[in-house]
Amino acid sequence: MAQTKPVELPDWLELPALELPAPLAGFGKPIPHFEVQFFVRMLFSALVDADFVETERFYSPDAPRGWAGSLNDLRGALGNHLSRFGPPEGAVNQLRGEVLEGAGHAAAERPGLFSLTVPTGGGKTLSSLRFALDHVQQHGLRRVIYVVPYTSIIEQTADVFRAALDDADAVLEHHSAFDFQDMEDETEAERIKLAAQNWDRPVVVTTAVQFFESLFANRTSKCRKLHNIACSVIVLDEAQSLPIPFLRPCLAAIKELTRGYGCSAVLCTATQPAIYKEDGLKAPEALLRGETREIAPDPSRLYDHLKRVEVVKLGRLTNAELAQRVRGRSALVIVNNKRQARALYDDLRGDGVFHLTTNMTASHRATVLGEVRRRLQERPVLLIATALVEAGVDLDFPEVWRAVAGIDSITQAAGRCNRNGKLERGQVFVFKPEEGYPPPRELQRNAEIACRIMAEYADPLSPDAVNAYFRALYWSSSADLDSRRIMGRIGESGNQLEYPFADIAADFSLIEDYNKPLILGSGPWGMDEDAQRLLSHSTHAGAIAHALQRYTVGVSPKILGDLIQIKAASAVRQDEFGEQFVVLDNVRLYDNEAGFSPEDPEYLGFLEI
């Protein structure tokens, strides 16, 4: 701004009177810095996307861009899909039907902020989709953006939507692991790749990382889609997982999208976080309950009627004691780290015992989950897992054993217990693991607060207990709700409006993942011939990363260095960012049938190097 110079216009040129754009109209002093910098990003998005699209039309007029259907057709298809279920049978299904009807009625409300508070297993996914499509249709909005917390569940959610809408082309699945090259139809692959650039689809399923980091990005590739978020219904699935260190900027972005850009945002969860001013959240970005409309009919009654489990609070259990208690039972055991999951699996391995962690590739995890679901219909199954099974994984065990964690995590774990109400009550056993297996460092405070809540409340999953948990969590972490000073730096930009866009984009990283990719070179879950050929000959590192995602696990830099030193792994190439792709040959992950021992070279004992 300081370097600008006035331009003298010719006498014959008359410009229309300057008017503030709608998102910035009505503000007085002081300067609304967050709103201004947000508008700059939106303007940048519209300009660069228009430039790319027009250039594309000039050079590639036949590029397969766009979608030929109508939102009315999607709403009709969803109605047909829901009608196939027939009249709901059983208490659980009847309540799911009530939630679904409530979503249809709430869609008539004016756009703005909504919440959908339904216990796990109460049908939130399809109910939120019905609300979103009805709301889009009744208020002339443009699209639905469904934001899930984890990449591990995004494919499942997208598949549910494609089946419900009977139009695969209408649903765009956009996340880091999506592989366009895996699609047999090259034209369709190119069409979806183009749509992912600017979210040019009526239904977008993405991750919280992709969504929020884009809203604070500065790169063209991430910003192109921002203007297409305007006039959308944004469903934030598992809203309680909003990252505490970035809570203030995330809430500010949600409020601004609903205030200035015609969006409706739905906080969809079984455990509404205490992010309201009335809950005592002192941050300026705290939401107001009076401005948030609840979609579900009487959430407290839903909780009482959908209560399918009881929580049994245990003391500390050693691995040997825990193994003795669950041996031979049909149960889900969830622990806080992969080392403990592996140790328990080693002790319990046998027929009907399964293991699930992120040390397994995506394809391996999907195979194990399919086998677990199949066997649950016939005979006892014991599944040892980490928290990756707690969100969006449709499992139904008669009992769940959960190492102590945050109340939100325990609630999610309880959602895998007696999910379909076949028992009068399922049991969720909460225990303290033996020394040496703590929760991840960033979740230790969550577990400590949960222990206090469980001591104070007979039912730690009740709405009152959940609210108390989140209040304690946010109050105790108030200094960290903007840990990178995103809001602080925006507010300090002064009258020159010199916002540090690049610095903010660099610092707004929801996941600080220091793991390195380790590609499995062979074995049942390693690279196939096509993947090996791509790794050897492709010149595009991004395409390689996408294609090899299904064969990859993340390991720490130390473990990676140790593996390279003992020649168990080797660097095969570098991408433009300097990260090495490394292949570990002749190994397999946990094979539930083979029963490898730690001494076996095909056993991933390297994880304890």
Automatic annotation (TrEMBL):
PROSITE patterns: HELICASE_ATP_BIND_1. Residues 105-290 form the Helicase ATP-binding domain. The keyword Nucleotide-binding applies. CDD domains: DEXHc_cas3. Keywords: Antiviral defense, ATP-binding, Helicase, Hydrolase, Nucleotide-binding. InterPro entries: Cas3-like_dom, DEAD/DEAH_box_helicase_dom, Helicase_ATP-bd, Helicase_Cas3_CRISPR-ass_core, P-loop_NTPase. Pfam families: Cas3-like_C_2, DEAD. It comes from the Bacteria. NCBIfam families: cas3_core. This is CRISPR-associated helicase Cas3. It comes from Ruegeria sediminis. The lineage of its organism: Bacteria, Pseudomonadati, Pseudomonadota, Alphaproteobacteria, Rhodobacterales. The gene is cas3.
